[in-house]
């Protein structure tokens, strides 16, 4: 909605509408400058119309403040800003309220999660954020509690236990608000649990409804007709190990259709023959479920990976949008789940509109007319190499959608996977129950994994542009009306790209890897951008193939704003492209670089030929020259050459590359 200049009649109308269930959540932000939920709006687009920071001036962005969080564990939350206060979560489910202008901590709430709970968490003791409504802050804790705090001072209003504490449930995802209900899921599918999603009354924490995602013991009454039908797609005694299908992350809400969408996870164990001997689709694993938010009953479902055996969860980010496809405006749901296909569904009925691979896919050749993957071969006692792997072509790190460009921005990754049945698999209560032999994966070299920022056209179902990275597991994305995409990287950078073509416009070194998604907000006419930086943990977040080369360091909350009195982008461009720049760049190159990289940029050794490297590296070239490459012979040059001189060296090499094309 537009900022003020509306008369009292309109104010009265809005006040009446605000009393209707879901209205405040439909907008998600009272003004364009707010960021009132982890994805800003219930459609989960992670798009802000703010454009004070834009492609023309983002180069002058600088840190407004930095808050050290005191943790070296992974930070995965997206902060929210409501009524002039920022709220976010840290590891171990700690909540902070912060002055968004200064970074001053207003209050801190520690739910005192028992440290032994950490053994139940597959992927570190992380938390992805809070929900805020009517002066209350809602969040889930690692040990399965849902807590409501007073937004003013952080004191606890109510607390409910949402799980059976004797089982290995955890909560790492952010809750969502739908009308007068707060909705929360849970994790633990590797540890013998049965998935479900629950809705609680925002006022007193009483349970309103609970929807299980997989059937339980068929000797007992099924909780719904949908679960009775799902049981026909299972074999054996699956319920003894829980079944899996946990709703551990993504949700979205359409107030017009009044439908809540949730994504479900993998089975327990991963390998289907251990879980459901004899096969079957195993509904509703790896599925998108459309639920009635009033009572939680299933309206429709779409299963991305029937008979799931790869850990190809469908818990990845869900985005709702209205797109014109083949001349017709469609209400769509978009998802890029782990399995490597980008799905566009009709969100009114769950029918498939299109699905195409957004990364290299070798486990299936495509999606058939019934919406089922055409699998090539499943693994057994022999090693099967495949893409993607259980890290996914895209994991939980949020993607974003820009309605101006029509593009989705995905933190994509290419990781070669090796699957084999674990010949000694036995069910355990204290470790993963997956059924695969992890040892065949651990031996992979770092070269088997890479990542990139992918701009994807969901209408054409094709890539628009990409920015390659040397490693996977990079941060979620934010896109804005200023023609920008923001993303943090595993190697410790925070970057702004032009949304329409991917040109790098701004880079800041965060001193630690970034995996969370950024957000932006406006206060008193000033636009800010904030990101939690902290790349730690387990299962690919702090060790193993996917983590090699990642930047580790203390977690921090960083907020940026435009520099006051800074030169304009036009002035910067004119300065570094003044007459004589090639001569200056050539001189600087031969003074500082030719000793290793060769005269004229022509390498005569194993050292990279910079004429070729400069195009591949893009603006990362400047960062490498300035900071060096630890563990290699590339020294830190920032003390010898300034940013202008680095730019001149780069332009000289670009000119040399053009001369030799």
Describe the model:
With 661 residues, the protein is an alpha+beta fold. It has 2 domains: 25-562, Methanol Dehydrogenase, Chain A (8 Propeller); 569-660, Cytochrome c-like domain (Cytochrome Bc1 Complex, Chain D, domain 2, Orthogonal Bundle), CATH 1.10.760.10. The protein has a 5-stranded mixed sheet, with no helix packed on it. A 4-stranded antiparallel sheet has the order 2-37-36-35, with no helix packed on it. Strands 3-4-5-6 form a 4-stranded antiparallel sheet, with no helix packed on it. It is globular, with a radius of gyration of 25 Å. The N and C termini lie far apart (51 Å).
User: SS-based structural class?
Assistant: alpha+beta
For the residues shown, what is the average pLDDT? 88
CATH architecture of the largest domain: 8 Propeller
**What percentage of the residues does DSSP assign to strands (E)?**
25-35%
Report the span from N to C terminus.
51 Å
Share in helix: 10-25%
- The tally of beta strands, per DSSP, is 37
Which fold name is given in CATH as the topology of the largest domain? Methanol Dehydrogenase, Chain A
What is the number of helices? 11
- CATH homology group of the largest domain: Quinoprotein alcohol dehydrogenase-like superfamily
Residue stretches low in confidence (pLDDT < 50, at least 5 long) are 1-29, 538-549, 575-579
Query: Main β-sheet: number of strands, strand sense, barrel status?
Result: 5 strands, mixed
Number of domains: 2
The global form is globular
* Strand order of the biggest β-sheet: 1-31-32-33-34
Radius of gyration: 25 Å
Name of the CATH first level of the largest domain: Mainly Beta
């Amino acid at each position: 909605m537009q900022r003020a200049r509306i008369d009292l009649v309109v104010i009265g109308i809005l006040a009446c509408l605000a009393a209707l269930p879901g209205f405040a959540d439909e907008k998600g932000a009272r003004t364009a400058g707010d960021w009132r939920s982890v994805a800003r709006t219930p459609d989960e687009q992670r798009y802000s119309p703010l454009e004070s920071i834009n492609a023309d001036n983002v180069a002058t962005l600088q840190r407004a403040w930095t808050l050290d969080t005191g943790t070296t564990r992974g930070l995965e939350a997206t902060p929210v800003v409501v009524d002039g206060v920022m709220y976010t979560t840290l590891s171990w489910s700690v909540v902070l309220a912060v002055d968004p202008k200064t970074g001053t901590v207003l209050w801190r709430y520690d739910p005192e999660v028992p440290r032994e709970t950490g053994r139940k968490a597959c992927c570190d003791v992380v938390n992805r954020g809070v929900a805020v409504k009517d002066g209350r802050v809602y969040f889930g804790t690692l040990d399965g509690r849902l807590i409501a705090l007073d937004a003013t001072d952080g004191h606890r209003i109510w607390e409910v236990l949402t799980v059976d504490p004797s089982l290995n449930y955890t909560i790492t995802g952010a809750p969502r608000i739908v009308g007068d209900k707060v909705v929360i899921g849970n994790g633990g599918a590797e540890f013998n649990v049965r998935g479900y999603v629950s809705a609680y009354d925002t006022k007193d924490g009483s349970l309103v409804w609970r929807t299980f995602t997989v059937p339980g013991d068929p000797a007992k009454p099924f909780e719904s007709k949908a679960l009775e039908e799902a049981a026909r797609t299972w074999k054996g005694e699956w319920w003894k190990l829980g079944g899996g299908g946990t709703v551990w992350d993504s949700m979205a809400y359409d107030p017009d259709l009044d439908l809540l969408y949730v994504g479900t996870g993998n089975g327990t164990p991963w390998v289907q023959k251990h879980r459901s001997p004899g096969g079957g689709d195993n509904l509703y694993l790896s599925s998108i479920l459309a639920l009635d938010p009033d009572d939680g009953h299933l309206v429709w479902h779409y299963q991305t990976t029937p008979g799931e055996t790869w850990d190809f969860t469908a818990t990845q980010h869900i985005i709702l949008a209205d797109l014109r496809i083949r001349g017709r405006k469609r209400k769509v749901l978009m998802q890029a789940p782990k399995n490597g296909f980008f799905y566009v569904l009709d969100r009114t009925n769950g029918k498939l509109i299109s699905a195409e691979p957004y990364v290299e896919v070798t486990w299936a050749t495509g999606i058939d007319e019934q919406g089922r993957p055409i699998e090539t071969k499943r693994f057994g006692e022999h090693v099967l190499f495949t893409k993607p792997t259980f890290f996914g072509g895209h994991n939980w790190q949020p993607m974003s959608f820009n309605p101006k460009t029509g593009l989705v921005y995905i933190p994509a990754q290419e990781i070669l996977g090796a699957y084999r049945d674990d010949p000694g698999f036995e069910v355990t209560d204290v470790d993963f129950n997956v059924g695969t032999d992890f040892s065949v994966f651990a031996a992979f070299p770092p070269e088997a994994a890479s990542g990139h920022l992918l701009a994807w056209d969901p209408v054409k179902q094709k890539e628009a542009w990409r920015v390659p990275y040397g490693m996977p597991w990079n941060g979620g994305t934010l896109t804005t009306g200023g023609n920008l995409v923001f993303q943090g990287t595993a190697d410790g950078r925070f970057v702004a790209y032009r949304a329409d073509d991917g040109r790098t416009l701004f880079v800041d070194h965060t001193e630690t890897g970034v995996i969370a998604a950024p957000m932006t907000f406006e206060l008193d006419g000033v636009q800010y951008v904030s990101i939690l930086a902290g790349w730690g943990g387990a299962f690919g977040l702090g060790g193993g193939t996917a983590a090699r080369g990642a930047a580790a360091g203390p977690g921090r909350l960083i907020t940026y704003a435009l520099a006051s009195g800074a030169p304009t982008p036009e002035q910067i461009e004119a300065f570094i492209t003044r007459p004589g720049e090639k001569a200056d760049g050539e001189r600087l190159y031969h003074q500082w670089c030719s000793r290793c990289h060769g005269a004229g940029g022509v390498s005569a050794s194993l050292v990279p030929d910079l004429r070729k490297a400069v195009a591949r590296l893009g603006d990362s070239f400047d960062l490498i020259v300035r900071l060096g490459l630890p563990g290699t012979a590339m020294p830190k040059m920032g003390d010898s050459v300034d940013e202008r001189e680095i730019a001149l060296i780069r332009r000289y090499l670009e000119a040399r590359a053009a001369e030799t094309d």
